[in-house]
Amino acid sequence: MTHNDRGRPECATVALTMKGTSFPVTIPLLLSIFAVACTSGAGGDSGNAGSSGSSGSSGSSGSSDAGSACTEFHAGGINDAAIGGSAQSQVGAQVAADMAGAAAKQLADLTQSCTKIAMALDTPSEQRSAAEAKTEPIEKVKAWCAIAATTLRAARVKAGGMTRVDFQPARCRLSVDEKAACQGRCSGAPCDVVANPMTCVNGTLSNGVCEGGTLEGGCMVDAKCDANCDLSVICAAECPAPSVTASVMGAADPATATKLEAVLQADLPAVLALRAHFEAEASATTTVTGNLVSITDIKTACIPMVVSAAAGAAAEIVAGFHAAEDVVATVR
C-alpha cells in the first residue's frame, strides 16, 4: 500500500479509503474514473490520452510528457498553467486542488474542536490515547468526534435537569467576484456581473456576497465548468461560527452543569460552522466529481493526481459532515 504526502492512498488502494462512506453517486464514479486515470497515468495508454486533446499543445502534453512527473498540480494551491488542457479542463483540475485544500483544513479544524470538547469534559486517558494514535485524518476525526459526542451525552446525564441549547444555523458566504472570475476562466473572457447579474437563491445577496443560499446566474458558460466553479466558490467560502447559548436548569450536579454550559458555548459554534461547510461541499461534490470524466487533455502524469485529490477530498468531506453531525445531534 502506497500513500502520497497527504496520507491519501494512490491508485491501487483508493477503493479501500472510499469504503464505509455514504456517497452513493460520487464514489462509484470516482472509482471508475480513477481506474482509467491510473492506467493512462502509468503510461499504458498515454499516447491515446494525448491524442484526445483538442489543440496541439494538449496533444503533445498527453504524449511527450508520459515519462515525466507532475509538478503542475498543487493540492490546496493554484495549479500551473503548464498543466495544459482546455480552459474547462484547467478549471476542473483547479476544483480538485481546491477541494483537497479545503477538506484537509476543515477536517483538521474539526478534529481540533472535537478534541477540545473531549479534553474539557475529562475523557478517560485511554480513550484519548486511542484517538490520538490514529494516523489517517479521517480515522482521527471520527475517533475524536465520537468521543466528544459520547462525553457530551454523559455530561448531560451527570448534570441532570434540563439542558437547553439555542443557536441559529451557520450560514456560508459565497463570493460573487470569485464565481465571476471562475466563469471568466471557463469562457476565456472576463465575466461582467453588471450585465450578467447573479442571484442568491434561498439566501441574502449583499455587497457581492450570497449568505445562506446558492449562488446562481452570471455569465453563460459550459454547464460542467459552471458546476466546477460553484464548488470552488463553496470551498473558498467563509462559514462564520454562530453564537451558542447553553443553560442547564434544575441541575443535580451544578459543577458538571457549569462545565457543560461552558464547553457548549465555547466549542460547539466551530462544529456547527464546519458542519454547514461540509454539507454545502457534499451537495456540490456529487455533481462535480462526475465531470472528471472529461479531464483527459491535461498533462498525462497529472490526471491520476487530480482524480486522487478529488476522491480523497470527497471522502474527507463526507466523513467530516458525519463526524460533525454526530456532535451536533447530542444537543438537538
Structural summary, described in words:
This protein is mainly alpha-helical and about 325 residues long. It is about 55% helix and about 10% strand. The protein is built from eleven helices and seven strands. The strands form three sheets. The chain has a three-stranded antiparallel sheet. The two termini are about 40 Å apart.
Short description:
By secondary structure, the protein is mostly helical.
How would you summarize the topology of this molecule?
Layout: H1 14-18, H2 26-41, H3 46-51, H4 56-63, H5 87-120, H6 125-132, H7 137-159, E1 162-167, E2 173-175, H8 176-187, E3 198-201, E4 204-206, E5 209-211, E6 214-217, H9 223-235, E7 244-249, H10 254-288, H11 303-328
Antiparallel strand pairs: 1-7, 2-5, 3-6, 4-5
What is the terminal-to-terminal distance? 41 Å
Count of discrete alpha- or pi-helical segments spanning 4 or more residues: 11
Q: H/E element string? A: HHHHHHHEEHEEEEHEHH
Averaged pLDDT, please? 85
Radius of gyration: 22 Å
Low-confidence stretches: 1-64
What key phrases describe this protein's structure?
mainly alpha; 56% helix; two-stranded antiparallel sheet; 332 residues; disordered N terminus; 3-stranded antiparallel β-sheet; 11 helices; flat
